[in-house]
Design a protein that fits this description.
This protein is an alpha/beta fold. It contains twelve helices and 13 strands.
């Protein structure tokens, strides 16, 4: 998918045309029309379109073929890989939910271990009609190339839903996918507009990298962090220690917060290897001025150990489960 298509709605017109871009040899299709823009294949229903795409996917060069869905024969502006088109057709109902839904956020509390006070809430995306789980939403978005739209909507929902409910001074931690932000100056403008529209203090926001996506381009992520920080917004590295980020990455990115993954917190009061890792992270973060947060606290003993070694913040079911509204 081209970057310009990241926030563009996708429609299956019936009837319509499947446009195959460029010089591709296709045989045996009824009504095929060819011009300088490529090949146009007419269809009358979603099922017929799906069958056409499945057949083209059997071609030896299918991985190289790109196209789009059009209402009429016209110039194509947003082009997708054939596999992405197939996924968009198959999962069109979920795509419609992503495109048309005004999502909600629920809130999980984050507490300070220094004074045992509420410090923040993490905002978690939810479908207000409970038609689909967050996991299925993000999985389908990844398959269909809708991550940018869903990620943008999640950021805006988190900002809107905290307004009037979360007191000023209590921060909101909001997830974001760095790969969906091609150009932070352009892609984040909707987020910054939402901050102004709902009169949220930028200092009350912390945007955290969903680290399970892996960090492929340190310089790009650092640039995103710079733009957030310029707007007075904090940044965090999520799931630290889960296997992708290293202490070297932490040094290069210099986030305001680092959230230590549950896998390193589970029974940390008993396991020496985890204790060594945690102490190393705490020492480095103190040196760099980064605030540490322990994720997934489920036992009193874990909480006590994290507090003992100097971790500043904590969240987890032991402290509070996600809820519809802040307590």
């Amino acid at each position: 998918m081209s970057p310009c298509a990241c926030g563009v709605n996708f429609t299956i017109y019936t009837p319509g045309f499947l446009h195959i871009q460029g010089k591709v040899v296709l045989k045996g299709f009824n009504g095929l029309i060819e011009d300088s823009e490529g090949i146009y294949l007419p269809y009358n229903s979603k099922e017929e379109l799906e069958a056409i795409v499945r057949e083209i996917l059997t071609l030896p060069n299918a991985a190289e073929i790109k196209g789009s869905i059009l209402k009429s024969i016209q110039k194509t502006y947003h082009v997708y890989s054939l596999l992405e088109l197939a996924n968009r057709i198959t999962h069109h109902e979920v795509m419609t939910i992503i495109q048309e839904t005004e999502f909600n956020s629920i809130f999980q509390p984050i507490y300070s271990l220094e004074n045992d006070q509420l410090f923040a809430y993490e905002s978690l995306l939810r479908d207000p009609l409970a038609r689909i789980s967050p996991g299925e939403l993000f999985e389908t978005a990844q398959k269909t190339g809708m991550q940018s739209m869903l990620d943008q909507k999640a950021r805006q929902a988190a900002i809107k839903n905290r307004a009037g409910f979360v007191p000023s001074g209590i921060k909101s931690f909001i997830n974001f996918l760095p790969s969906t932000i091609y150009n932070p100056e352009f892609c984040l403008r909707h987020t910054f507009e939402a901050v102004k529209r709902y009169q949220v203090n930028p200092a009350d926001l912390v945007f955290e990298v969903v680290e399970t996506e892996k960090i492929h381009d340190i310089d790009h992520l650092k640039n995103i962090f710079t733009v957030y920080k310029r707007e007075g917004i904090g940044v965090a590295l999520d799931d630290f220690g889960s296997g992708f980020a290293t202490l070297d990455v932490l040094i290069k990115l210099a986030p305001n917060y680092v959230k230590i993954d549950r896998s390193k917190i589970d029974y940390c009061d008993q396991l020496i290897e985890k204790q060594q890792f945690l102490k190393q992270v705490v020492a480095l973060c103190k040196e760099l001025g980064i605030i540490t947060l322990a994720e997934g606290i489920e036992r009193k003993e874990e909480l006590q150990y994290c507090k003992q070694i100097g971790i500043s913040l904590a969240q987890g079911y032991y402290l509070g489960k996600p809820g519809n509204l802040p307590a």
